[in-house]
Amino acid sequence: MELPARISKYELQEYLGGGMSRVYRARDTVIARTVAVKILTEQACKDPEAKARFLQEARVAGSISHDNIIRVYDFGEENGRPYMVMEYLRGEDLRALIKTNRTGDLHCKLAIALQIARALEHIHNQKIIHRDIKPENIQVTSSGLVKLMDFGIAKAENTALTRPGFTLGTPYYMAPEQIRGMPVTTLVDIYAFGIMLFELITGVRPTDAEGIEKIFEKILRQPLDLAPLAAAGAPQGLTDLVASCTAKDPAQRPSSFSAVCAELERILRRLQRGPVGATQTLQVIVEPGLGGTVAAPTPTPGRMPVATPTPPPMPAQQVARAKSSPWLIAVAIAGVVMLAAAVWLHFGAPGTQSLAPTISTPTGDMVLVPAGSFLSGAERTQLTLPAFYIDQTEVSNSAYARFCTDKNRPLPELFLKDHPYYPVVNITYVDAQEFAKWAGKRLPTLQEWEKAARGRDGRVYPWGNERDPRRANVLDNPDRKTPDLMPVDSFPEGASPNHVLNMAGNVWEFTDELRTPSDAALKSFARLMTPPPTAGEPWYTYRGGAYDTKLTDNVLWETGSVPARYKAFNIGFRCVRDVK
Questions:
Q1: 156 Cβ partners below 8 Å, 6+ apart?
Q2: Dihedral (Cα; 551, 557, 559, 564), 10-degree rounding
Q3: pLDDT tens-digit profile of 377-431?
Q4: pLDDT tens for residues 323-353?
Q5: Largest CB tally within 10 Å, which of 2, 89, 504, 577?
Q6: Could you read off the pLDDT of 130-151 as tens digits, one per residue?
Q7: Which residues sit opposite 76 in a β-bridge?
Q8: What does the DSSP 8-state code read for residue 516?
Q9: Beta bridge partners of 361
Q10: DSSP 376-430
Q11: What mean pLDDT comes out for the span 194-215?
Q12: Cα atoms found within 13 Å of the Cα of residue 275, Cβ hemisphere only
């Protein structure tokens, strides 16, 4: 076909490839959108079954809406040739990325695999079996989003286009029961996924031979050699998952992609904590000028973070000089005046007494932090703040998913969709700020966060001054056998005086204060980020400890800072709202 050409309202601009159907980059002339148009060839149109399959693909793919599945916008027929209009994807298929060793490290590979598994989980929930899972049918966009494509031989419930005894699929990825011509179930997709996962991790197919007969013989008779997985650095849990997915007996495979997704998420969380390879944990480093210490993410293979030391006490000679200073009298008088003002603010500020202690918002309940003074920092310095409301819990996956849907934003990487009440993580400060704006809220200042956590009396922990790791989701909680995230409404026994939950542990939380990074922080993050961060870009603070750090006696006032574009599996946030 000579280009440019036109079919219906679509202007075909570039031939992209194809076999029985041809794919073109095109322009929707009505809404000026770039699309991909797939047209069945004239030769294929003469085959009633090929034409029926093309129509079936359009119907199946057109009925699916998922972030990790290619979208079908339109379908039609012109001059006897059916066509389908899909989203135009910029990127490469997974085959090209594997072949050129551009799938990244183990973490990146598993992130790709998880997106594929989620796509397959979705279509299985729609009673659709893909039947042709292979790297060529997986597109990875330039932004890293994974898309499942090509439903040409997908089998929907109550459809039967396959002739008896006729096998469809790509030989290397076909399950034993598929080769034998037995009725296919969702377990053939799980088998193919396991083969593709092996190839994604190792870079080679687990089964290779010359000729389809020999390939089939190996699939049916020979056990899979899993040694290349260990050689590629796969942890034992990942090797076990591949072995389970590729079991020759379908009954021995995972029963669903929900189970596969859960296992991949568990493996990825372990990688985030650092037991395999150079991964990210929170290691304590001292950053001068912050009134304490800072927890900064650094690569620490196989090592959990240590407890943060408390700030050193003031030297005795400095205390003596302070006691002898004549201006202390003036300071004392000013302090009395400030205390009187603070008492008035707390007990008699106009309107405060009539404020509701709790308000409901579309993204969760908020609790009142009354106006007045509180004791801040290691030195328990008295500060005064006006009243404000703060989220009773960290922002959950459920609330953040609604934000992404409403704003047409992608979900965070490794989003735990099966845990809607867990705190959202793997978001940047900028992401958190955008969510807060959408919700009609804002991020808390350092002082607001601390007052909500410590109350007026400057307690050491949200629940009081007694150290009790059992009241928080922290690394040294003896009741928690495996460090991991917990629901945002967990540990009510560890609530603050204002009934705010999980201010100590679970996830670190962003606070709205710019901070100039230390040289140590710059060096630490240079190993984690590309391009490396600079002191000139915005860095923001965070507080509160996480599930993978021990409970320390400065957990409520120690402060770390990260670049505004940084994200991690143990950093989340909560919001505040001004009293109107």
A1: 56, 59, 60, 127, 128, 129
A2: 100
A3: 888 899 999 999 999 999 999 999 999 999 999 998 877 777 888 999 999 999 9
A4: 333 333 343 434 443 444 444 344 344 444 5
A5: 504
A6: 888 999 999 988 667 889 988 7
A7: 83
A8: P
A9: 364
A10: ETTTTEEEEE--EEEESSPPBHHHHHHHHHHHT-PPPTT--TT-TTSBP-S--HH
A11: 88
A12: 12
Domains of the chain and CATH, by start = 5-87 (3.30.200.20), 91-273 (1.10.510.10), 310-578 (3.90.1580.10)
Q: What is the pTM of this model?
A: 0.51
Has 132 been annotated as catalytic?
A: yes
> How far apart are the C-alpha atoms of 145 and 412, rounded to whole Å?
11
Distance CA 473, CA 482 (A): 11
CA distance 40 to 20: 6
Q: Give the DSSP per-residue string, 44-104.
A: HHT-HHHHHHHHHHHHHHHT---TTB--EEEEEEETTEEEEEEE---EEEHHHHHHTT-S-
3-state helix, strand, coil in the chain (%, to 5): 35, 20, 45
Side chain identity at 278, as an amino acid letter?
A
170 contact partners, CB below 8 Å, separation of at least 6? 132, 134, 136
Could you give the angle at the alpha carbon of 476 between the alpha carbons of 471 and 479, nearest 5°?
60
Write the CB contacts of 22 (distance below 8 Å, at least 6 apart in sequence): 1, 15, 38, 39, 41
Structure tokens at 148: 């499942």
- Alpha-helical (H) ranges within 164-315 are 176-179, 187-202, 212-221, 227-231, 236-245, 257-273
- Tokens representing residue 502 in the block: 């999980």
Q: What's the CA gap between 191 and 186, in Å, rounded?
A: 9
Tokens of 94: 């997974």
- Hey, what are 282's tokens? 């929170």
